[in-house]
Specification:
The chain is mostly helical and 102 residues long. The protein has a domain at 30-80. The protein contains three helices and two strands; from the N terminus they run ααββα. The protein has helices at 2-29, 33-82, 94-97, and strands spanning 84-85, 91-92. A two-stranded antiparallel sheet has the order 1-2. Strand 1 and strand 2 form a beta hairpin. The longest helix has 50 residues, at 33-82. It is elongated and about 80 Å long. 0% of the residues are buried.
Length: 102
Amino acid sequence: MKVLIGFIAGAIVGFGIGVASSVVYSGQSGQDLREVYKGVRKNVELEQFGQEVRTNVAQAQADVQANVAEVQAQIGKVAQTRGKASDNGSVMSEETTAAPNT
């Protein structure tokens, strides 16, 4: 219980210090507090936008990797179905790759 009360008291004190420092800053800088808040809000929005872009890029990369793996698996199945490849890259059937009986 003491920890919760201490946390709440700390949060209130921290909020009060933040408000007081913003009032002092706006008074010293000559800027209106609303202008400062608008700039901070714009920075927060840009950070959120950057996070969304990073998330979308990561998702697109995962989708591409999954598609590439699927295509590679299909290529492997096709190669097995068509036969073995010879050294020069041409596809040969299993009958032609077997050693001749002499």
